[in-house]
Amino acid sequence: MPTLNQVIGTILQDIGKAKQTADLSSKEIGEQYKKDDILKHFPIPRVGIKDLTINLKFSVTKVENGKIEVAVTNSELEKISETNISSLQLNTEIKNYQIDNQQNVIEL
Questions:
Q1: What is the pLDDT of residues 36-95, one digit of tens each?
Q2: Among 15, 19, 58, 66, which one has the highest count of C-beta atoms within 10 angstroms of its own C-beta?
Q3: What is the DSSP code string of the chain?
């Protein structure tokens, strides 16, 4: 079973990877737009996430040496009494940045 910090860490990593995937897609679209006589005058579409809320249901299965093991999958949680299932709400503000022509990083 994973530990609670592994689950939360993986969620945060995946958020970063999703942003990276969206940015790479915007880059590819931008390169296509540059080559097109009409599209080069349009703004490049991009995706940004400002606020994100995740509700995580879990059940503590073991506590040992400061490590908290948890059940998080539906199949694991179905076997556990509802009174032993906790819910944690993760709220995060995601900052989006852009690099200007002078290579300065600007928060959007």
A1: 999 999 998 877 777 889 999 999 999 999 899 999 999 999 999 999 999 999 888 877
A2: 58
A3: --BHHHHHHHHHHHHHHHHHHHHHHHHHHHHHHHHSTTGGGSPPP-----EEEEEEEEEEEEEETTEEEEE-SHHHHTTS-GGG-EEEEEEEEPP-EEE-TTS-EEE-
108: confidence class by pLDDT, cuts 50, 70, 90: low
Q: Where are the domains of the chain?
A: 4-107
Give the model confidence (pLDDT) of 46-61 as tens digits: 777 778 899 999 999 9
Q: Which amino acid is at 1?
A: M
- C-alpha to C-alpha distance for 34 and 4, rounded to whole angstroms: 45
Q: Give phi and psi for 31, each to the nearest 5.
A: -65, -35
Radius of gyration of the chain measured on its C-alpha atoms: 20
pTM value? 0.71
